[in-house]
Amino acid sequence: MKVNKTLRLDSADNVAVALTDLQPGELVSPPKAPTQGAHPEAESAASAIMLEIREQIPMMHKVAVTAISQGDTITKFGQVIGVAAVDILPGSHVHYHNCVLEGLPANFGSSTDAVMAKVPTTPANQRFFRGFRRANGRVGTRNFIGILTSVNCSATVAKQIAAAFSHPAVLQDYPNVDGVIALTHESGCGMRAAGEGFDALTRTLEGYVTHPNFGGVLMVGLGCETMQVQGFLSRAGLQDSATFSSFNIQEVGGTRAAIEKGVERVKTLLTAVNAQSRQQCPLAELTLAVQCGGSDGFSGITANPALGVAADLLVQHGGNVIYSETPEIFGAEHLLKARAVNADVAAKLSERIDWWQAYTRANGFELNNNPSPGNKAGGLSTILEKSLGAQAKGGTSPLTDVLLYAEQRKTRGLVFMDSPGYDPVSVTGQVASGANIIGFTTGRGSAFGFKPVPCFKLSSNTRVYDFMKDDIDINCGTIIDGEQTLTEVGAEIFEAIIAIASGEQTKSETLGYGDSEFCPWKIGAVV
Amino acid sequence: MKVNKTLRLDSADNVAVALTDLQPGELVSPPKAPTQGAHPEAESAASAIMLEIREQIPMMHKVAVTAISQGDTITKFGQVIGVAAVDILPGSHVHYHNCVLEGLPANFGSSTDAVMAKVPTTPANQRFFRGFRRANGRVGTRNFIGILTSVNCSATVAKQIAAAFSHPAVLQDYPNVDGVIALTHESGCGMRAAGEGFDALTRTLEGYVTHPNFGGVLMVGLGCETMQVQGFLSRAGLQDSATFSSFNIQEVGGTRAAIEKGVERVKTLLTAVNAQSRQQCPLAELTLAVQCGGSDGFSGITANPALGVAADLLVQHGGNVIYSETPEIFGAEHLLKARAVNADVAAKLSERIDWWQAYTRANGFELNNNPSPGNKAGGLSTILEKSLGAQAKGGTSPLTDVLLYAEQRKTRGLVFMDSPGYDPVSVTGQVASGANIIGFTTGRGSAFGFKPVPCFKLSSNTRVYDFMKDDIDINCGTIIDGEQTLTEVGAEIFEAIIAIASGEQTKSETLGYGDSEFCPWKIGAVV
Ligand SMILES: [Ca+2]
Ligand SMILES: [Ca+2]
Ligand SMILES: [Ca+2]
Ligand SMILES: [Ca+2]
Ligand SMILES: [Ca+2]
């Protein structure tokens, strides 16, 4: 069904991506650039020109669609990925032999003026979703009861409390309750009682205990752990209420007594949580976490930019986006910094990059700021190009803040939250920061879902979609298949976000994913 | 019921522990030393003398039971804990003001000759337990089917496969099968594909896949993770057999297909695993992991030494013991080194200590090699005394090897396996190393159990036993209550080990503990 042999990602691009191996002498028609409709005339003009391929170009590699003079910038995704080291004729292979970073203007990114011009105002055509508005004003997209733990030692009790409510019949009188779930973790003791690791776990637990997707929360501790429940609650300013309570196993007389007490507490919570129901809320109450797992060569040109289009639409409608995975922006962090709304935000990003450099060095290695041999074989010429493919999923909005892992989001629009790239650890932080919907791109078919927040999955190619249809919500491979444009898929994702936030079940929810994916980032030594 | 006011831990000791606050002028009768019956006449002589208390001595602190001259060694647990800084009269408070490390003979530990003399030969009165002897000759104490994972991404599938067998009715035709369990972990990707962290996870998974407490194993991967299932299997020399199989979710068509395939595989395994049954096996096939969690001031004088007595009995009967928790021996590692059977073993222990010093320094802190202010308030005068209380649980056998975390045990008798002190992480390594029974001491009432290996819990005091009776198997508080001697409790634990290894259920098994406690040590950065 592949009708196009090349894909131009933005109407401003002077290169296109080969969707198949191209041979010298072949005549190809560069496809209509699937941009957000910025330059419709340019698109039709470009699509009228037939392009003669001048040399062998492997699939996923770049071909020049216009003449590029030595010293000119080379543009993909509508953004600069390098400079022409020589004059490049249309139809030529563009790769690291002729696309380099040397000679790049020092300040080629957006200016602060340009960034500020893009800070969205609430649109005239306001959109809404149906969410659970909590007493504190925050809005949930689901209505779970959560059993959280301070330490691994209370995991078994937490799971057994939740298990008492796992049969659908038990909840049939509580139609507004999405379920009772235990989110347990492996840490909480055998750690220092201060410092980065302790603070990160504290922020994570606070983000979950107060998450709007929980109508009610029970927190179970052991009693002698490093992460003391009482200390945690007083630091977080939390106390027992109609929707929150806590206890320690050692204080109630052991396992059996703790399970009984927990089951009773949850029974009490059920009535309060069931009394909450969905109501109309503006998209400003949505916070989309974007995440990538198991990427392939197509991720950077289909699923990631399509999710980016949806992310931009959400921000334009007053909503919020959390972009993360610091190791993936390494070597091209200035692209993101150039979109910072002020120098403080840019400086915060620099601090995080410095932290990662020290952290990886202390752990005996360095993060790469060059494309790997595998990246090069896949057609990625510069670290800018690689990073832009990853960064595409966050969209192009101004960067309004940089957060520590699991730190509460405070600004509107697009924010960056520091985290590893590892999916469960990164998403755990994003949800703690306030994400109430998750968009997940994959080229390999990730097995991922997350409670209490719905997660929809986007495939970067049609093969993985067809093979794992039960797991993937939306196929972005249609962009390379020539069936849909990036703009169309982005709009489809945007509508899916509204539907899912309003209660439509994602594939991973149907499959029961989400209990095992809560993995707080453990920083520092286990002792 | 407290009939004794002081407790002398060994007949060779010149100090006793106050079991209550003692006042000047009080006359107390030092109890019969609950040693392993080494010096019965000395005991009766000592117990005949009434001791006059000379000054205020807080509970858990030490009182001199004989005159100790300046420069003489001070002995508790039958071992040197310090040197008298001044002449000390019977009935005096012995603490860091008069019990110091300065002046300690450099080589006060056992000589190699003394160590080798204790290397046990199989006793005449051979004892047996009833275990599952596997095709490769190893012996299990339980007969589980395990669903293991390479990465967090396959955790949900693994748990859903196991859940299909969670109802007792499903297994009623397979009476020899103890259950179908999913042991999942948070790692396997977002990590470097080489180095200490990768090697530790590899050793851990290998130790579980081949553990004799599993009659059959299914390993489920995702497909694109760092810890590739195929690579792991070829390094471990494993391949599909009647009792082992593996597959990747991405290769079978996604979550639903993977769960169906897994359930079918387990159904096949059930018949093979049910065909295995218990038979008589010598105690040489038992490997006891000793572990301490939530210790209190009594742990070092009741539960730990009582478990040590049982550990020594097991070694004397040809069995094996794995002692761990490296941070706890810090500052007194020479006590363990002095028991090494040769210089190589002692050198291996030094290497591990050096590693921890570098590891903690890289993580911004140092392990303490002095008793903490809390330790001192609790009556512990020197790091030797603190460490001896912790080391007591391993018994006094010669040290035949030092293992890396999760490294397979190769020698007989007592070995030390490097690990953090954090219970789930440490025990996961001990089980991977080959432990098929776990003895766990606690002063606070730990909520702990472990699958597929039975874990019995020992309380250090009667209060916690009475309050958490559902969780604690044996109360060692009877030693301070004067109801049992250390020797008697140690013998009781030894008999319990044989009964539990033969199938008797522990409290934690009855309560359903053990699925959430599998926590491989994560060394190095998450990326
Ligand atoms: Ca978890
Ligand atoms: Ca990721
Ligand atoms: Ca579609
Ligand atoms: Ca685990
Ligand atoms: Ca421990």
From TrEMBL, chains A, B:
Family: Belongs to the UxaA family.
EC number: 4.2.1.42
Alphabetized UniProt keyword annotations: Lyase
Full protein name: D-galactarate dehydratase
UniProt region (Disordered), positions on chain: 23-44
Gene3D superfamilies: 2.30.130.110
One Pfam assignment: GD_AH_C
A GO molecular function held by the record: galactarate dehydratase activity
Organism expressing this protein natively: Teredinibacter turnerae (strain ATCC 39867 / T7901)
Keyword Chaperone: no
All copies of domain SAF, residue ranges: 13-100
Manganese is among the record's keywords: no
UniProt record, GO biological process: D-galacturonate catabolic process
